[in-house]
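Journal club side-thread
Mid-discussion, someone asked how the predicted structure for our own chain would compare to the paper's figures. Pasting it here so we can look after the session.
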Amino acid sequence: LVAIFDSDFIINPNFLKKTVHYFKNNENLALVQTRWTHTNLKYSLFTLSMSIGLDTHFLIEKMGRYNTNAFLSFNGTGGVWRKSIVDKCGGWSPRTLAEDLDLAYRIQLAGYKVVYLRNVTNDQEIPPTLRCWIIQQSRWSQGFSQNCRIHLKKVIFGHHGKSKVQGFLHLTQYFVPLFITINTITGCLLSFFPEYNPSQLSLIGFIFMIASSFALISYSTAIFRANRPLWHCLLIPLFLFWGAGLVVRMAIGTVKGIFITGGEFIRTPKFNILPDQKEEFTRVKIPIDSIFLIEVGYSTILFLGAIKTLSLGLEMLTIAFFYFFIAISCSALVISELFHAMVRDEKDNQKNKN
């Protein structure tokens, strides 16, 4: 048996006692996955808000998939593998940036089992800035898209006994930011045409409102299940706001995954933020890349589209708000990228001291 942890994890002292016994007398069990909790939950308003998404994943999504015999992912850490099954299913592969998800699907398509333990937890570090967060999300979106290309056909047409609908939704989840990006750009551009029919876009806005309502219920339930104060529900709009700015990065990652095998694994920066540590600017130099210009252009299009949409009448107020919401969020991400690009790295600081 092999237990796997990322470098930022604080391991539960009783972790092995709470997990290893599941493998006894169950030779078909390949993986035991446990839940993440957070070392730096209260580090800042940002980490407090972004943790809502992680809690929803572990307390709503994974519980739902586990209880309905759907496909489960390995989250790359906080789990125990049976090495012999890993070897039988081809071992770790560099063909995707989400190699943990790839292996989890291969073992389940081969008929092996995964156990998810909600009540066994280990603390991990939440990326403390938007710029650090997008490194993680860009990698995940590309990796999920690669796994979709590799496994979707087997999930839909294979004889594996798992929920095919849930498997489809799981593998294609990062296509949602791609569709949002396409929808917002085309919607903004179409609003400038004289023959534009705003009622069609109103329908799309209504669908987004319905989807958002279900999301609010899920996030609120996760906060309750995590035994967090109920006032944390007031942070859900902040989580949605900061997350909305990531759609361009995730959309580009999804497109890359469709066409590219493997890729460079860019590590999410770790800071060793302790549970009682107070907020301070997290200084790590991350250069600006070419996608920065795309994000600036995207924000500009949405701002202009929101203003034009608002001029079409009050019935377009919801759509205009949606455009403004994403545009401001993406602008916040651009500012975070600029801050990290201007930070001096350790070598520069050492030169200044000398």
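Post-session note: The two ends are 50 Å apart (CA to CA).
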